[in-house]
Each structure stands twice: as structure tokens, then as C-alpha cells.
Specification:
By secondary structure, the protein is mainly alpha-helical. It has helices spanning 3-34, 44-62, 68-71, 97-103, 106-123, 125-156, and strands at 75-80, 86-90.
């Protein structure tokens, strides 16, 4: 990797970090302007729902074949991944490389999603609990599907 390419990559990452800081600040401003009382600290159940929902939505957005059209302008498919998932790499084009890296990486997406769920919980706790609960149910459903497939393969042997 050349020096200039390395600088561009850092510039893109710095831009993403600045974008995230602005995004998080936007949630704080919305919460402040709503004049809602300060939300209670989340309990263990709320944290579990948020973590599970963040996990599932980051995989759905960053890897699932069904969400490929959202990533297509920024990534290229390398190979099939886990069931119903794709392995992708960012397109090496200015302005697209960093975005491609962010939207095809479940770990990278998780930071943005947990900020979204946290901000949404402060403004709309019931609606956010419904969404995180639904995504948690989807995660459990996926685990059951995988378990069923493994048991079926074992029974065929």
C-alpha cells in the first residue's frame, strides 16, 4: 500500500469518526429538546435486548443477501458467506471505500446501531423496546433454524 493510499484511508476514517460524533451529538440534542425526563439506566433485560438486536441488525444490514442492494454501490462480492450472507470488500474508489468498509462490517455497524438504539430508547422507550424485542425474537428464530438444520443432518447420517 502506497503512502498516499494510506493517507486517504485515514482521511476516510477520520471523516467517519467525525460523522459518528455528529450523529451521537444529534441524538443528545434531540433528547435535550424533547424535555423528557432523564431516562432510567437500562436494566439487564434492556441491555440484553439491545445487544441482541444490535447483533442481528448489524448482520442483516452488513452481510445478508437481501440487503445487498444497499451495499452494492460501495462493495463488491468476494464469496458466499454464512447461510444467506455474503463476504464483500469495499470498492477502491474515493468516497466509497470507507463507506463500503463501514456498511459491510457488522462490527463497524454495531457502533452506529447501538448509538441509534440508545438514543431512540431515551426518546421513545416503548417503541424501541418493541423493535429490539422483535430483532431479539428474530435472532432466536435464526438459532432455532440452524439447530433444526443440524439435527436434520445428524438424523440423515
Amino acid at each position: 500500500m502506497g503512502t498516499l493510499q494510506g493517507l486517504r484511508s485515514h482521511g476516510g476514517h477520520l471523516g467517519a469518526m467525525a460523522g459518528f460524533a455528529g450523529y451521537a451529538a444529534g441524538w443528545a440534542v434531540l433528547r435535550h429538546r424533547s424535555q423528557r425526563p432523564r431516562p432510567a439506566a437500562p436494566g439487564a433485560w434492556e441491555l440484553l435486548l439491545t445487544a441482541t438486536a444490535t447483533f442481528r441488525l448489524s448482520r442483516l444490514m452488513g452481510k445478508a443477501t437481501v440487503s445487498r442492494p444497499l451495499r452494492a454501490p460501495f462493495t463488491q462480492v468476494d464469496s458466499p458467506g454464512a447461510p444467506a450472507e455474503l463476504n464483500e470488500t469495499p470498492r477502491e474508489q474515493p468516497g466509497r471505500e470507507t463507506v463500503g468498509e463501514l456498511i459491510s462490517c457488522p462490527f463497524c455497524l454495531s457502533v452506529w446501531l447501538v448509538a441509534t438504539f440508545t438514543g431512540a430508547r431515551a426518546l421513545w422507550p416503548e417503541a424501541t423496546r418493541t423493535v429490539t424485542g422483535a430483532l431479539t425474537a428474530l435472532t432466536v428464530s435464526d438459532a432455532l433454524q440452524f439447530g433444526h438444520a443440524m439435527m436434520a443432518k445428524h438424523a440423515e447420517r
